[in-house]
Every structure is written in C-alpha cells, then in structure tokens.
Write a structure and sequence with these properties.
Distance between the termini: 21 Å
CATH topology: Lipocalin
Number of domains: 1
Strand order of the largest sheet: 1-2-3-4-5-6-7-8-9-10
Number of helices: 1
Largest sheet: 10 strands, antiparallel, barrel
Helix content: under 10%
Structural class: mainly beta
Number of strands: 10
Order of helices and strands: HEEEEEEEEEE
Strand content: over 45%
CATH class: Mainly Beta
Length: 184
C-alpha cells in the first residue's frame, strides 16, 4: 500500500501540473516566457483534486498552487497530498536547446523526476522518468483533458523498470482558492 500510494501521489502531481495548460482566463499580467503563455490562466490559483480510488472515510486529496518563477522564465508548482503527508515542487520551463517544454519535480519522499510535456488542442500529454524511487516505478505517462464543466480529468499509468504496467490512477481537479498546500 505504501508503494502504491507513493506512486499515486507522484502521478497526481504530474496530472495537476499538466492539466492546466490550455484553459481559462488570465490570472497574472507580469512577463512570462512566450512558450509558457498557455499556462498563464493558472498562475496565482490553487487547484484541488480527489483520487478516484479514494474512500469516503479515507480520501486522497491533492492540492497544487501555481506561481510565476525566475522572472517569468519558469512556472513553479507546489503541491501537497492529504495536508502534507506527501508533497513536491516542480519547475516547468522551455528548453531552447531541445525545443521542448520540460520540467523537474522534487518530492518530500526523496525521489525526483524529469519530464516532457506536449500540449494538443484539448489534451496535455506527459512522460516523465523517475529517479531514486524505492517503489520500482521508473516512468509515468499521463493524459489530462479539460472537461466542458471546467474540471480537469487526468489519467496516468506507471511503468516499472521493465516497461510493464505497474498501476495507475485517475483524478478530477477543480479550482479551489480556499485549499492550501501544506508541508509537515
């Protein structure tokens, strides 16, 4: 259960990171790298998502906060699961050498990831490599879709070191300005 929950948390963050790229209204007016402009509507906002596998008596809830970083050359996303039982920080940026939108994610569980994001008309697709994970997950692939009601539906699958499926998760996110990212 500990291994599965850690994987779920990793994927939840990735999903929250990826699902906001193409929606909404402008939230901040400071300068931002042109390759990050599609994320502007999410800056200064907080999002709350509940895992589909959650039980009413033991919900698994992810909260993420989006901020402009490094003079607009990056976007910083802080997130926490279940009031700080787990959390992480991500920096998303345009890699001019590789001509890709990339990110790095660092966790309170001691592992980190690096990934690439592809934005299509209504989907955000991400692939990330996991480093330092004791639970055997080596890669996470996720797809996020913006729904008509403004929610973000995310699905992810985890792969082990042999490239075989090792679980997955689904989360639905809604904007929630009262939610708070917390670290213990």
């Amino acid at each position: 259960m500990k291994t599965s929950l850690r994987s779920l948390r990793l994927a939840a963050f990735l999903a929250s990171l990826l699902c906001f790229a193409t929606a909404g209204q402008a939230g901040e007016t400071n300068t931002l790298d042109e390759h990050l402009e599609s994320f502007r509507p999410f800056l200064g906002k907080t999002w709350r998502g509940e895992f589909k596998e959650s039980k009413p008596d033991k919900p698994v809830v992810d909260v993420s906060r989006w901020e402009r970083a490094l003079n607009g050359k990056a976007i910083r996303v802080l997130h926490s699961v279940n009031d700080g039982a787990y959390g992480g920080e991500s920096l998303m940026f345009w890699d001019s050498e590789q001509q890709k939108l990339r990110y790095y994610y660092f966790t309170t569980a001691g592992f980190h990831t690096s990934g690439v994001i592809t934005v299509t008309e209504k989907k955000i697709i991400a692939t990330e490599k996991v480093t330092g994970s004791a639970n055997g997950i080596s890669e996470v692939r996720s797809t996020t879709e913006i729904q008509a009601d403004g929610t973000l539906s995310t699905k992810a699958e985890y792969l082990d070191k042999d490239g075989k499926k090792a679980g997955g998760r689904e989360v639905v996110y809604k904007e929630d300005q009262k939610a708070e990212v917390r670290f213990k």
